[in-house]
């Protein structure tokens, strides 16, 4: 049985196919080489510039949102970490800490530069953030007198004398709440912290450990309160303490204790507490609290 081929075309069919192929080729060439686009659209430069400015503005807003906010602060309470974030060098921070270690206070922008020796350019950046206490910026001496005409000790610049202050180890929540910035919550935090230790506070510097207290509020507290009956502690000899003895001190863990002993060995004993500031991973911001528990004897 013979099969009929489906691919046989008549002459007219072949001519049609050939014509179709020609047309396809022509259309392809026209599509490839003829520009069908209309006149080029000229961009609106003014609109583009406005759009670019809007994008840049949004970028700046986002960058500003992500930047850490720096609030006004008392330069006397600059820690190593704070100084580093402000752009101060280690030497400049050490000069300030050494100055404060002598129980001296920076009371002006000029004095801050004299003590730290920071550059004029850095001072121009950070000095607008300085916030000194009111008794420095607006001193108004007050004099109190008793009825028998004997002059009591003068409260200079609004500061109370030691005798005028309330014992922090016996202060009530009501007395604490008289301090500007101390509410019910913070006064409770102070009392709870005090009650953690039999005998209460050793020193006012321990207020730094209480959550929620800013340096400015602590300064106001110490203007009205003092630790007059400090808790008695048995101090640990820094130059002979074991690792287990060191970790009993607040803010010192086994790792820091290891580095303290390592540094002690290298120095052949510590000559001063300030040498602790060179110990690896030492919590510098807690230095004043840690030294309450130490002796060099």
Automatic annotation (TrEMBL):
It comes from the Bacteria. SUPFAM superfamilies: RuvA domain 2-like (SSF47781). It holds the Pfam family HHH_3. InterPro entries: Endo/Exo/Phosphatase_dom_1, RuvA_2-like. This is Helix-hairpin-helix domain-containing protein. It comes from Gelidibacter pelagius.
